[in-house]
Amino acid sequence: MGRVAWILLQAGFDTLHGPLPDEAWLLARQESRRIGLLVLPSAADPESIRKIVAALPKATRTLVVGPQPSSEARDALRAAGAQRAVWEPWEEPTLTFVVREMLAAPRQGTTRKSVRVPVHFEAVLKSKNEQGAAQVSFLSEGGAFLETEVECSEGEEIDLEFWLPDGPIAARAAVRSVRGGDESPGLGIAFTRIGQAEAERLVAFVRDRAELLALSDPG
After folding, report:
1. How far apart (Å, rounded) are the C-alpha atoms in residues 38 and 25?
2. Residue 120: which of 149, 92, 153 has the closest Cα?
3. Which residues have a Cβ under 8 Å from the Cβ of 101 and sit 6 or more positions away?
4. How open is the CA angle 13-61-120, to the nearest 5 degrees?
5. 2-108: which CATH number, 1.20.120.1770, 3.40.50.2300, 3.20.20.10, 3.40.50.1970?
6. Which fold has domain 117-210?
7. Sequence spans of domains, the chain
8. What predicted TM-score, i.e. pTM, was given to this entire model?
């Protein structure tokens, strides 16, 4: 897990690294108040996971990272306390996205209606006043988050085009939130009009990508 710890440290997370199960358990006992998320290799022994999880507060989330094991092994990981997974091959933005989302989840108090998946797709958006480039940084069946310099207001309707691996998606969307200030600018949007064929492709992509972050088989 050395690479994972280094990536998270470079991304700005306060990271504690226990390379061996006994060291991780000792860290969990000594630093339990500091730990909001436990990240373990997918090859970890479920009994070791259970022991470490038991040493942490109940609100602590658990993520496994690594090669995807058999269905039985995934069931064992889930039973030991793991909630989500990032299976190989994974990219650094995927890992950091999932970590941020899991750390935020206990504070949100609500469950999202649809799964969000991290992506990095180029896009073009057109607002009522200007047109410009954007990057889709996460995507769901019903909306997306766009990193963009284009200025929009909450409630404004925009036209958007972005590219999935199998081709472009054109949609009409409403701006639900605007991010700015000290953070990089961006827009949270909800799709309001999209063609049926494009919607089906979007749903298929999101569900396929979500399976890479799941501990259980779909369905």
Report:
1. 11
2. 92
3. 116
4. 55
5. 3.40.50.2300
6. Thrombin, subunit H (2.40.10)
7. 2-108, 117-210
8. 0.64
For residue 126, the one-letter residue type is K
Instruction: Check if the beta carbon of residue 66 is closer than 8 Å to that of residue 215.
Output: no
CA dist 88 and 81 (Å) reads: 20
Give the pairing type, strands 37-41 and 61-66: parallel
E strand map for the chain: 37-41, 61-66, 84-87, 117-126, 131-139, 143-148, 157-164, 167-179, 186-194
Q: Which residue is it, tokens 């990057």?
A: 135
Backbone angles phi, psi at 199, to 5 degrees: -60, -40
Nearest to 37 by CA among 51, 52, 47, 22: 52
Sheet holding 84-87, edge to edge: 37-41, 61-66, 84-87
Q: State the DSSP H helix or E strand holding residue 50, giving kind and residue range, or none if neither.
A: helix 46-54
| Residuewise pLDDT in 10s, the chain (219 residues) | 588 988 888 888 888 888 888 888 998 889 988 899 999 898 889 999 999 999 998 888 899 999 988 888 888 998 998 888 888 888 887 888 888 888 876 544 444 456 778 888 999 999 988 999 999 988 999 999 999 999 899 999 999 999 999 999 999 999 999 987 666 788 999 999 999 999 999 999 988 887 766 665 444
Tokens standing for residue 45: 């022994």
Q: Quick check: bond before 218 cis, omega within 30? A: no
